[in-house]
Design goal:
Layout (H helix, E strand, L loop, with lengths): L6 H9 L4 E3 L2 E3 L1 H13 L5 H20 L21 H8 L9 E4 L6 H15 L6 H5 L6 H5 L7 E5 H14 L1 H13 L2 E5 L8 H16 L3 E6 L3 H9 L3 H14 L6 E4 L10
């Protein structure tokens, strides 16, 4: 049974102790681990269930620590080395984005050009100004943490960031198992102050995914709620990527892309453009 606490999370918890609340009791993460081990020994829960609960509560701790600015996605946790940025001018454009203007941000360019790193640097600045994070279970009053959410590493907050592949996986799974919960999931994404969909180029629309994605993006478009998207291709290429040769899906893909670009009014940052030479 794997109930391990990552070293980076342990070091953060050492300076700021945190307690978890489960079934009316308070636990430290270490105490909760021992509680789960006893429950497995007693035969009250399975090892698989214990591992899922522990993974969910590790995620809960990570989200909680965002409020103290101590935790960030591991791949983007290091400070920016400005001298090694592939496109410094594109990075600077991303950093100028100001979500209170209800403007979308679209960062596009080839893989490795720094799109996602630039967006996370900007989001880190926003979180430091106004961190407001909570788990799905806290928002919806669920009695236990649902492994559907922790399995995909989704962070529930007023700023939600989710990889496009995780979005597609959740839609696919819930459309088969629990369509009612899928509707709740999409509604929650609609309500976020800022929604960041990373690498939307990886989506391959199906009828169900097209319906859910259009519903989500059209609602945010109509209500002027900020959306951030990274893509390996610009608008025309993104339509082709989403529709992947299906003429009926192409109509929906075009409508989705038009709303993402806000009819050309979104801040579009081209990471493939030649970088500006440094000033004197």
């Amino acid at each position: 049974m794997k109930l391990e606490i990552p070293s980076d999370l342990r070091s953060c918890m050492h300076s700021i102790p945190r307690e978890l609340h489960y079934q009316g009791r308070s636990f430290t993460l270490e105490a909760f681990r021992e509680h789960l081990r006893r429950r497995v020994t007693e035969g009250a829960i399975s090892e698989e269930r214990a591992e899922r609960l522990f993974a969910a509560w590790k995620h809960s701790m990570k989200v909680s620590l965002i409020d103290r600015h101590l935790y960030f996605p591991e791949a983007f946790n290091a400070s920016i080395d400005y001298a090694r940025l592939p496109n410094r001018s594109a990075f600077n454009q991303v950093m100028t984005w100001f979500y209170y203007g209800n403007q979308n941000l679209v960062a596009f360019g080839d893989t490795g050009t720094g799109k996602t790193r630039s967006v996370y640097a900007m989001l880190s600045r926003l979180r430091n100004k106004n961190a407001d994070s909570y788990l799905w279970k806290d928002k919806k009053g669920m009695s236990e943490c649902d492994e559907e959410w922790c399995n995909y590493g989704v962070e529930w907050s007023s700023l939600i960031d989710i990889p496009a592949t995780s979005l597609a996986a959740i839609v696919r799974k819930l459309s088969l198992r629990d369509p009612a919960k899928l509707s709740v999931f999409i509604e929650f994404l609609k309500e976020a102050s800022i929604l960041f969909i990373d690498d939307i180029t990886q989506l391959r629309l199906t009828d169900r995914l097209a319906e859910s994605l259009y519903d989500l993006i059209d609602c945010r478009y109509r209500e002027c709620r900020s959306l951030i998207v990274t893509s390996q291709v610009a608008a025309d290429g993104l339509v082709d990527k989403l529709a992947h040769g299906d003429k009926s899906l192409r109509i929906t893909a075009r409508a989705i892309v038009r709303r993402i670009s806000q009819d050309g009014d979104a801040l579009a940052v081209d990471f493939d453009a030649p970088t500006q030479p440094p000033g004197p």
